[in-house]
Write a structure and sequence with these properties.
The complex is a heterodimer of chains A (259) and B (146). Chain A has 259 residues and is an alpha/beta fold. Chain A is 37% helix and 16% strand. Chain A has a single domain, classed as Rossmann fold (3-Layer(aba) Sandwich), CATH 3.40.50.300. In chain A, 46% of the residues are buried. Chain B has two domains: 59 residues, N-terminal domain of TfIIb (Single Sheet); 86 residues, Helicase, Ruva Protein, domain 3. Chain B is 35% helix and 19% strand. Chain B has five helices and eight strands; from the N terminus they run E-E-E-E-E-H-H-E-E-H-H-E-H. Chain B has a three-stranded antiparallel beta sheet with strand order 3-4-5. A two-stranded antiparallel sheet of chain B has the order 1-2. The radius of gyration of chain B is 17 Å and the shape is globular. The chains are: A alpha/beta (259), B alpha+beta (146). Chains A and B meet through helix 1, strand 3 and helix 4 of A and helix 1, helix 2, strand 6 and helix 4 of B.
């Protein structure tokens, strides 16, 4: 009996071509983005979204009159970017071309599941509940792809992608973009954070991402440790900024300069 | 995905796709030589897995809509999350029954659904969308739940 590759007629479903078309749509959409940066950490609760939002605002202020800055909130299950960017809850305007991003403080464009969900509602998908683990990951990756490819980002100086804890979304992002994005790592000073972030940085480097640097968040008297410096030495990347518990605006402005 | 008629050693041709609305999918394939037709039947989990990738068995019948899968698949979407209708929808009319039926579609996805039906009608020179037209479009385009 002949097998798949022996049959020369086209596969009518063309699933491979459909996937390729999806990738192409993302590539075309992001053609006007000068730089994509994934903000990640292997650890939850280190303030990735907080750093992302304030850094985006600072870059936007610094490049006032430029192309602009965008934030894609890839934390689909715990979206916080709209609140951090003080984005008003409003309808997302759609057209043939795509969905217009929301506009937050300092003119930062953003898209987030937080803009689309019912107030306080968890992200839930339609579909069979039994064995939902089989398809839920694929659905979340599809949502990420649509955020990248269907939002009218236009021309941007930078698009920051706020990743959730763990590595899954980062790997999905690499696949969707077709190349591993540069990574900005956020940690807090503790050894526990150092250990988790180390794994993430190692995974990102092995995947081929350029490690842009480290932001050490929540420094001060409460959290003990020197995760930033240790990770910096281990990976040979700079600590680009240290953010205290109560940062002043110039802290973000300085970080925007080095980033 | 390809189907082979083993007796004839012929690749079978895609026939039609049906989405009965219970989460399952049926797709038929026909042998061009002997005419034998087989149906591929997938259960809800299998169907969901494929649709979660944003692809369609049998090929796409309508162009991808912005945030199409988010709008179709998110169950907890805010009713007024999207503002649609920024597009010229031509002179297609909606019968009262069709309007009533469209009104039962959740707001989160309604604008997108309306656009797809309007495109379907306009491309075929249909002046008025009725429930019967919606049924036909739904079957032809594979618009489960729309």
């Amino acid at each position: 009996m002949r097998t798949y590759r022996d049959l020369k007629d086209a596969d009518r479903s063309g699933l491979g071509q459909q996937i390729a078309a999806q990738r192409q749509r993302v590539a075309e959409r992001l053609a006007g983005v000068r730089r994509i940066v994934a903000v990640m950490s292997g650890k939850g609760g280190v303030g990735k979204s907080y750093v992302t939002a304030h850094l985006a605002r600072a870059i936007a202020r610094r490049h006032k009159g430029g192309w602009g800055v965008g934030v894609l909130d890839a934390d689909l299950n715990g979206p916080t970017i709209p609140r951090l960017l003080q984005t008003p809850v409003a309808q997302q305007r759609t057209s043939d071309k795509g969905v217009e991003p929301a506009i937050g403080a300092d003119g930062v464009k953003c898209i987030s599941m937080g803009l689309l969900l019912d107030e306080g509602a968890p992200l839930a998908f339609k579909g069979p509940e039994a064995e939902s683990f089989v398809w839920r990951g694929a659905m979340e990756a599809t949502a990420l792809r649509e955020f990248l490819g269907d939002v009218e980002w236009g021309k941007l100086d930078a698009l920051l992608i706020d990743l959730p804890p763990g590595m899954q979304r980062y790997l999905e992002l690499c696949d969707i973009l077709g190349a591993p994005p540069p990574v900005l790592t956020v940690t807090i000073p503790t050894p526990e954070s150092r250990d988790a972030v180390r794994r993430a940085m190692r995974a990102a480097r092995e995947r081929g991402s350029d490690l842009l640097g480290i932001v050490e968040n929540m420094i001060g008297v409460e959290l003990k440790g020197s995760a930033g410096d240790e990770l910096s030495r281990e990976f040979g990347v700079r600590v680009l900024g240290r953010v205290p518990w109560h940062p002043r605006p110039d802290c973000w402005d300085r970080l925007a300069v080095v980033v | 995905m390809k189907f082979l008629c083993v007796d004839c050693d012929q690749q079978m041709s895609f026939g039609e796709r049906q989405l009965p609305g219970d989460g399952t999918l049926a797709a038929t394939f026909k042998c061009p030589k002997c005419g034998r037709v087989v149906a591929m039947l997938t259960n809800p989990m299998e169907t969901q897995l494929v649709s979660s990738l944003g692809v369609e068995i049998g090929g796409r019948t309508v162009p991808a809509q912005p945030l199409e899968n988010v709008r179709k698949m998110v169950a907890t979407g805010r009713e007024d999350a999207f503002e649609d209708g920024k597009r010229e929808t031509g002179h297609v009319q909606w019968s009262p029954d069709a309007q009533e039926r469209l009104g039962r579609v959740p707001n989160f996805v309604r604008g997108m659904v309306k656009r797809i039906y309007a495109d379907y009608a306009r491309e075929r020179g249909i002046a008025e969308i009725t429930p019967a037209i919606m049924d036909t479009a739904r079957a032809e385009l594979g618009l489960e739940g729309m």
